[in-house]
Each structure stands twice: as structure tokens, then as C-alpha cells.
Amino acid sequence: MEKNEKHEQEILEEVANRIAEEEFDKEQEIHHFSSTYQSNKQNFLKKVSTKKSKTKFGLKRVLMIAIISIVLIPTTIYASKEIYQWIVTKNNYELNLSLYDNKKYNHDHFYKLKFDYIPIDMIEDGDSNKFSYKGNLDSGGISFVLWQLSGKDDFKELYTKDYKELTINHHPSIVIKKNMMNSGDIQFDTIVYLFFEKEGYVLQAYISNDVKESEWKKMLEKVSLGETNEKDATHYGILSKDLFKGKQPEKNYYLPKNSSNIHKIGDAVNTKVYDTQEVLFTVKSATVMDNIKLLDKNNFNSNSYEQLKDKQLIANDGELLPFNQKIIKKGDGIQTLDEVVGERKVKTKFVYLTVTIENKSKKTIKDLYFQNRLYLLEDSKKGLSVAKEEVDFTPYSGEVDYLDRHGEGKSFYKMPDIKPGEKRAIKLGYFVDSTQPSKMFLPVLYYDDIEKLDAKGLEWIDIGQ
Q: What residue ranges are annotated as transmembrane (predicted)?
């Protein structure tokens, strides 16, 4: 075997070992290999058994060799100056990128991302490395994540439709096209990995479909890493074994239907604001509306309102209009993709709430933000759980869509101060579609991430109509 071939084989085996170790390190999880893999594995084991070799293989070793034979037929090996190799393996819609680099990085310098070209009308959200168009600041655009390399690094992408190698401004890159059906028109369907060989970093770009290919390519051609000090350096991630494992099974959490944490419209719920100041929170009324002409337009969340106007779901006279909605069956991103399994006509609705907040403490409540999203919970044998149905579009935004007495700009959800003993009435609302009003639940002034529906201190009001 020639020296280069031997070196290449060593690299392949190294990557194979990493893939195999990952399979066996899933902590006793039941792993289901594909039927093709199982067939190839059996053929391989059959060959081993017929050689009558005196060498005894342990099961793990045999399977690792099998994986080398079966999986590591590299679809791509990118080499430059024999310093690194980027090996791409694709299993249906799962794409694994293994970057093998002989160079030892000291990482004794700090770097800041420099963008010498930003598409016109696109701005950065603070110093976040997320760029969006001025007319669509809350969605779409390009987001960048910087990863520091250790020399043996693996990335994973699911829902991969296709990929190709590019050299962008002398940086080897992998461009991945994904096939997903997310709710809404914006899809982050392009991922780019751009390797900064000299510095030892990979820049990962998430690109939405509202950015033209010519624009994101020009932006990536003009991006660089400039040396700086620790304070001004771009935040970076360090790859670990647990990253890029792909989509993990979702856990279902249930709320008992007879839970004492579920309240009715009209109930005064005793709770605390930011765990300190006691208040009484009451939903006085909930009304599902088909027309919003009598509501003050200035109180609407402009993103939600303008999106529905753009989709022609709000008529000039305020009437909320019907639309066709596609029902999506989600794939696992490995063996299956998302697919449309049905279509129905639904109507846009608006849920208008009147609530009161009574300050029972002896101090003025300041900096109160009312931004509790509406939750859609559905009934099951185990209790209430978050509704799982996926659709191509719904007016339900996950935000408070209407709020009177609100703040301005980024402080839209900020409420005026509430003095001790004062009872403040608030009008708020949410856009939904006609399949959702029966599932509506409102968490009461809860500001932690909601995962467990029966978490301590989490009170719900059933506002289903």
C-alpha cells in the first residue's frame, strides 16, 4: 500500500471508529440500523466467518470493521495541501461531516468576524451575527455560528436534500440544501460550513429562503476573521460529542385534566410577579371575533398584523378571511422527510381577552412585561399535552398579538407601573385559526420556559371556546 493510501486508510478508520463509538455510546438506547445496513452487515459477517481466521473478534470490533466496510465509502474527500480532509457520508437524508485535521491549533489568538459586505436593506441584530432585512426583522435572513476546532470534529445535518463542495474566498466549504416544511413562508433551507484553515475555526451559516443565492455567496466571500482581544472577540462554540447528534426524541409532558392548577374564566388566581410581588390575576372575559375593525390598530403587534395583511387574511373592513391550510406529517429527517397529508379550509379568528391584575403587595410593580403566549393543549388518555398537529401556515404566532397600554418598539410588551392596591384592566388578544379556539390555555404571568406543563408555580386559565 502506498504511503498516501495508507494515510488515507488510517483517516477513514479513525472516522469510522468515531462513528462506531457514537453508535455504541448511546447509553443503552435501542439503535435501529437500516435494512440496507443490516443486510450488508450480515454479508460482511458471513465473509468473516468463512475465512476461518484464528483471529478472534469481539462483537464491538466486528461491527466497527463492518461499519468501516459499509458506511465509509466516502462520497467526498476534500484535501488541500494534505493538511486536512473533510469526509462526507450520507445516509438517506442524514449527512455527516467529519473534519480530520493534522494541524495542531494552539488557539492562542482571539478573532472577530468581519463582514465586508452586507446585502442592502439588511441589518445586524445588535452584535448577534444575525442579519435580517429591515422589513422582516423577526424572521428570515442569515445567522452565523462560529465553532473552534480541535482537529477531529464531526457535524451532522438532517433533512438533507443535496450538498456540494465550494471554495469560497479560498476557504473550502460545504453547501447543504435541506428539505423541510416549517410553518410559515420562511425556511432556513440552506446551511453552509466554511472552514478557516489557518485559524482553526468553522463558520456555520443558516440561510433563509428570503436571501438570494447571489447575495449570501457575496456575503460569505467577504467574511473574514480578524485578530482582536478577548473582550471584543466573537463568541464561539467548542464542539462536543453531544452536539450535532441530530433531532432527539421529543418528550411529552402532560397536565392532568383535573389539576388544581387549571382555573376558569372569572377565577381570581393568586400568584407572584417575578416571584416577589403578590397579585391577583383574573380573566374577566374571552371573545372569539371574526372582525377586528373596532379595535385600535396601534395596539396590534405590527409583525403579526402586517403578516396577515400581506397574506390577504384581513380585509380592509377588518373582516378576518378564510384560507386553505395544508396538514404536514413530520419526517424524522433521516429515513423520511416531511410530507403533505391533507388540506382543509379554515378561517382566521381573533381571541379578545379582558383581564385584570391587582397589586396585592406594598410596593409598586415596575418593569412588568405581559408577553405570555397562548398555549394550545389537546386532550388525551394521559391528560392535556401541547397540540402536535403541523400545518404549513396558521395565524397563531406564539406571541401576544394585541395589547393596550403597551410600550414602544422592543419594549412593546412593557406595562405601565401598577401601584400598591391598584387593579389594572388590560385588553389583549391572539390570532388563531378556526381549529384552535377549543384548545386555548393561558399561563398566568409565568416567565420561565414552559416544558413541564405541571411545573411548580405554573397556573393555567382554560379560555377554550
A: 62-80
pLDDT band at 330 (very low <50, low <70, confident <90, very high): confident
Is the pLDDT confidence value at 435 over 90? yes
- 197 burial type by CB count under 10 A (0-12 exposed, 13-18 middle, 19+ buried): middle
Going by their DSSP bridges, the two strands 440-443 and 460-462 should be labelled as antiparallel
The pLDDT value recorded for residue 57 is 33
- Identify the H or E element spanning 142: strand 142-148
pLDDT tens string 267-287: 999 998 877 889 999 999 999
Q: State pTM to two decimals.
A: 0.71
Q: Whole-angstrom Cα distance, residue 127 to residue 117?
A: 16
Q: How far apart are CA 80 and CA 78, in angstroms?
A: 7
**Cell numbers describing residue 276:** 416577589
Query: Do 255 and 460 form a contact (C-beta atoms < 8 A)?
Result: yes
- 70: Cβ–Cβ under 8 A, 6 or more apart, which residues? 37, 40, 41, 44
Dihedral angle sign, alpha carbons of residues 316, 321, 324, 326: positive
Q: What is the average per-residue pLDDT within 397-411? A: 86
Which triple of cell numbers denotes residue 79? Answer: 484535501
pLDDT at 222 over 50: yes
In the sheet that holds 440-443, the strands lie side by side as 262-263, 460-462, 440-443, 375-380, 383-386
* b/e burial code for range 241-275 (CB count within 10 A of at least 16 → b): eeebeeeeeeeebbbeeebebbbebebebebebee
Please say whether the beta carbons of 183 and 269 come within 8 A.
no
The 3-state secondary structure of 83-116, one letter per residue: CEEEEEEEECCEEEEEEEECCCCCCCCEEEEEEC
DSSP 349-363: EEEEEEEEEEE-SSS
Which of 203-217, 229-243, 363-377 is the least confident region?
Answer: 229-243
Question: Which residue intervals of 134-240 are DSSP H helices?
Answer: 213-221
269: part of which helix (H) or strand (E)? strand 268-273
Rg of the chain over Cα atoms, rounded to whole angstroms, equals 27
Most confident of 55-64, 290-299, 302-311, 452-461: 290-299
> What's the CA gap between 94 and 336, in Å, rounded?
10
d(CA 50, CA 101): 37
CA dist 320 and 315 (Å) reads: 6
Angle at the Cα of 167 from the Cα atoms of 163 and 173, rounded to 5 degrees: 45
